[in-house]
């Protein structure tokens, strides 16, 4: 919905009061005392918290805004009412240092071809970009463009797309995803159809900076990117938030951005090249970067500010092993103000993404508090700045409140299914850790099947906060439910997923809908409850499977702490 100017404090107070009344009514209700079956999770809590957090009063929950202030206050209140204690040494929050950079007065992206002819591409419709540098102005001038394929340097795979090329001052043109994303199976140098971390845009920009590039431009292609240009444009427009760096971003590229695929085709044509032919060559081992002989120029201004955002941390203390912890995480942030839709609505409310996930944290805290304390502590962390590059979880992973070697594992929640009851649950990323056994038992208790990930090429395992915890060794589950709906089967599930991606993901239309069917959301949150409850009770220490990319980090973490895993 369109935000009203200067929303009244009374309206926000009414939202808080209503939600707390719902919380109190749920806590007072009978029939849920610790039973892990149907009814353990309060649908009213899921509804009330989602509706409140995605209301216009929270202004899209952008970090560093009044929306953050209201979100943190709301979550502290709900966590406390649910029965949690402040989780960070007596504080409800962990402060996360960030910098916000807002580009202004964007010029076109100008390309000078080999024949001296110029092409001009409009900001927004043709290209988007931003700078990680805290500089008042950005001037990319006559930077030579180099096609670097997928922009990957992976020594363990004997793969280097930058071999033999000096990128100093140049602009890298990069393909999205991995070289083998079109594979039908999961065999290949880069996981076959399943995206690896090398396929993520975050990695590609980081690697370009390490190579000394002045700028990096990714070619948007909807299938390998897993989202349309509308998502790129909305996500990269307006303020961008990054982790604060001691060098104020000087080590980063001058500009990172995206171009539409037809724009990239025109750039290649100006260089006397064919994008399809170059893309095919980039898929093969031994590919070498191709200097294009054309130059890129653009300029824009920057305003910036540094600030501290906040992770919200609550805990149910453990009984006999209080120094051991189980994590439940979900990101509270969304995009704040974004490109307005046809009606003029410029608030990306983030109802599904991820007010529902944070609502699940509240509901899980309530359910576990009602059931009573477990041997291990249970920590509930609402993380900041996921939408800006998983920054809150990155900070937590580097500065853990609960020691990593004493964290048994965890569950990350990023969006709940709202199309009704379903028959299956997908573990995103596939079989990766010994938490799969906990998942299997939880699904069996809920009469649910486990299904293989239907779109591993989209790399969802690397696109939410569990990834940063996995990188430092903590076994994490990230689940998705609803592919096989009880009403309509897999066709209905696919249609619901398509509608979400194309019509609402990162758009102002991701708003609370009173007609949502919450039965499926309740199913999957009950599965989270069963998994977390068992993990908080058992003395076992799950690890990553042998050969998994995160196994070495866990083994090293355990070895370094004799009192841990």
Explain this structure.
It is a single chain. This protein is an alpha/beta fold and 565 residues long. It has two domains: 305 residues, Zn peptidases (Aminopeptidase), CATH 3.40.630; 204 residues, Glucose Oxidase, domain 1 (3-Layer(bba) Sandwich), CATH 3.50.30.30. Helices cover 32% and strands 23% of the residues. The chain is built from 15 helices and 21 strands. The strands form three sheets. It has a 17-stranded mixed sheet that branches. A two-stranded antiparallel ribbon has the order 7-8. The protein has a two-stranded antiparallel sheet with strand order 15-16. The longest helix has 21 residues. The radius of gyration is 24 Å and the shape is globular. The N and C termini lie far apart (48 Å).
How is this fold's topology laid out?
Layout: H1 9-28, H2 43-53, H3 66-82, E1 85-86, E2 93-104, E3 109-112, E4 118-121, E5 127-130, E6 137-147, E7 153-154, E8 159-160, E9 171-175, H4 201-210, E10 215-220, H5 222-225, H6 229-236, E11 240-243, E12 255-260, H7 261-270, H8 275-282, E13 290-316, E14 321-331, E15 336-337, E16 347-348, H9 351-371, E17 376-383, H10 391-398, E18 407-412, E19 424-427, H11 435-445, E20 449-451, H12 466-471, E21 476-481, H13 489-504, H14 519-537, H15 551-560
Parallel strand pairs: 6-9, 9-10, 10-12, 14-17, 14-18, 18-21, 19-20
Antiparallel strand pairs: 1-13, 2-11, 2-13, 3-4, 3-13, 5-12, 6-13, 7-8, 13-17, 15-16, 19-21
Helix pairs in contact: 1-2, 1-3, 2-9, 3-9, 9-14, 11-14
């Amino acid at each position: 919905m369109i935000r009203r100017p200067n929303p009244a404090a009374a309206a926000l107070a009414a939202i808080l009061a209503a939600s707390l009344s719902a919380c109190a009514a749920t806590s007072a209700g009978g029939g849920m005392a610790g039973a892990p079956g149907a009814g353990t999770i309060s649908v009213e809590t899921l509804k009330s918290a989602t509706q409140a957090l995605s209301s216009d009063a929270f202004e899209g929950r952008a970090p560093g805004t009044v929306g953050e202030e209201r979100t943190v206050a709301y979550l502290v209140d709900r966590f406390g009412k649910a029965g949690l204690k402040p989780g960070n040494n007596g504080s409800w929050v962990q402060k996360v240092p960030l910098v916000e950079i807002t580009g202004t007065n964007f010029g076109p992206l100008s390309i000078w071809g080999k024949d001296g002819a110029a092409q001009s591409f409009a900001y927004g419709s043709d290209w988007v970009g931003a700078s990680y540098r805290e500089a008042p102005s950005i001037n990319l001038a006559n930077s030579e463009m180099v096609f670097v394929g997928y922009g990957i340097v992976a020594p363990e795979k004997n793969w280097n797309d930058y071999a033999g090329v000096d990128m100093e001052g140049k602009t890298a043109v990069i393909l999205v995803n991995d070289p083998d994303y079109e594979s039908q199976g999961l065999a290949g140098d880069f996981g076959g159809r399943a995206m690896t971390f090398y396929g993520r845009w975050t990695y590609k920009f980081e690697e370009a900076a390490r190579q000394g590039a002045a700028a990096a431009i990714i070619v948007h292609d909807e299938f390998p990117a897993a989202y349309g240009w509308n998502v790129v444009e909305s996500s990269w427009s307006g303020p961008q938030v990054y982790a604060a760096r001691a060098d104020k971003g000087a080590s980063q590229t001058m500009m990172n951005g995206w171009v539409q695929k037809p724009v990239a085709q025109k750039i290649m044509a100006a260089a006397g090249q064919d994008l399809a032919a170059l893309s095919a060559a980039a898929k093969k081992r031994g590919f070498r970067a191709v200097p294009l002989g054309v130059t890129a120029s653009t300029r824009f201004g920057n305003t910036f500010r540094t600030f501290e955002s906040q992770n919200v941390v609550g805990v149910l203390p453990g009984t006999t092993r209080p120094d051991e912890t189980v994590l439940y995480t979900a990101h509270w942030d969304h995009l704040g103000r974004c490109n307005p839709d046809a009606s003029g609505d410029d608030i990306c409310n983030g109802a599904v993404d991820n007010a529902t996930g944070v609502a699940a944290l509240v509901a899980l805290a309530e359910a576990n508090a009602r059931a009573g304390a477990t041997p291990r502590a249970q920590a509930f962390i609402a993380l900041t700045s996921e939408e800006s590059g998983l920054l809150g979880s990155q900070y937590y992973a580097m500065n853990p409140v609960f020691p990593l070697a004493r964290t048994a594992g965890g569950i990350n929640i990023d969006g709940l299914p709202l199309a009704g009851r379903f028959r299956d649950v997908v573990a995103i990323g596939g079989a990766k850790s010994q938490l799969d056994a906990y998942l299997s038992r939880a699904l069996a208790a809920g009469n649910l099947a486990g299904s293989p990930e239907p779109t591993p090429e989209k790399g969802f395992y690397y696109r939410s906060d569990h990834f940063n915890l996995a990188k430092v060794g903590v076994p994490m589950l990230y689940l998705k439910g609803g592919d096989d709906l009880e009403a309509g089967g897999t066709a209905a599930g696919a249609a619901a997923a398509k509608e979400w991606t194309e019509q609402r993901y990162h758009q102002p239309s991701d708003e609370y809908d009173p007609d949502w069917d919450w039965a499926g959301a309740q199913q999957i949150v009950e599965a989270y409850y069963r998994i977390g409850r068992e993990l908080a009770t058992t003395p076992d220490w799950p690890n990553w499977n042998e050969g998994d990319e995160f196994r070495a980090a866990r083994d090293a973490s355990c070895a370094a702490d004799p009192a841990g895993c």
